[in-house]
Amino acid sequence: MKEIIRIKSINEVHRFFGLEKPKHPLVSIIQINDEITNFDYGSVKYIFDFYQVNLKLGFSGSMSYGRNSYDFDEGTLTFIKPNQTVEINSHEIVTGSSGWTLMFHPDLIRKSELGKDIDEYSFFDYSLNEALHLSEKERNSLTSIIHKITEEYSQNIDKHSQELIIANIEMLLKYSKRFYDRQFFTRTNLNKDIVSNFYSVIKNYYSSDEPLSNGVLAVKSCADKLNLSVNYLGDLVKSETGKSAKDYIQEYVVEKGKNQLLGSNKSVSSIAYNLGFEYPQGLNKLFKSKVGLSPTEYRNSN
Length: 302
What we know:
- The structure is a single chain.
- The chain is α+β, with helices and mostly antiparallel strands.
- It has 2 domains: about 5-180, Jelly Rolls; about 190-300, Orthogonal Bundle (Arc Repressor Mutant, subunit A).
- The protein is about 50% helix and about 15% strand.
- The protein has 14 helices and 10 strands.
- The radius of gyration is 24 Å and the shape is elongated.
- The model is unreliable at about 60-75 (pLDDT under 50).
């Protein structure tokens, strides 16, 4: 088992790379260069106690949960939240690498609106193979915000500093959300294939005996089969269909239940168990929410 190194503070990162002490204890931006890229990270795993937004250009290597090649040359943006495990593997010596890493500790935003809303930025839970691929214009937009954050924490800290730093971080995240929407939109054919494969996973599951032993199909099980993170699959399905991945599964289950209710003499309990519900009440609750009728009421009304 590989050693795990936990890095708890921004100051520890600066010490790790031999940089001068950070100008602010809770937020810092490190400019990526060949020295940072070619740093000997060792054969270990890292856990960070803070958020990171990383823009990498001219980078050769991978992180342990990255799987797919990137399709934009201008820059790749990745997001890491506290307590995620990261392993960095450099493939070769790199020259000409650039970019930046924004790091901010949860304590910076804890009492702010961003602190309350940070979980809404679901891309912090994406895998690195689901990175945001930026055009040059998009990269410049985000980098200009990074410059503002740097300027703000580099000058004398006053009562407005934290508010302005947080506001700029929030702006960067909002732009990132917009750019992810663009990425979903421009990858329509790929997305349709993924949604089609998602449907196939659901169909194959409910065409087997798996529901009897494994229960109602979970979004995570589908995501695992498709080599995607739960949040990325959910956001992609929402973008393509207007439905959440969970709703997509539930609607399939309801249609399957309707067919069995009207096309067989099986009891409601038997149908519920066949669909993976531990108790008939689970199917009853789902029908009530999606159809407005209980399974028995639905059967009797047709």
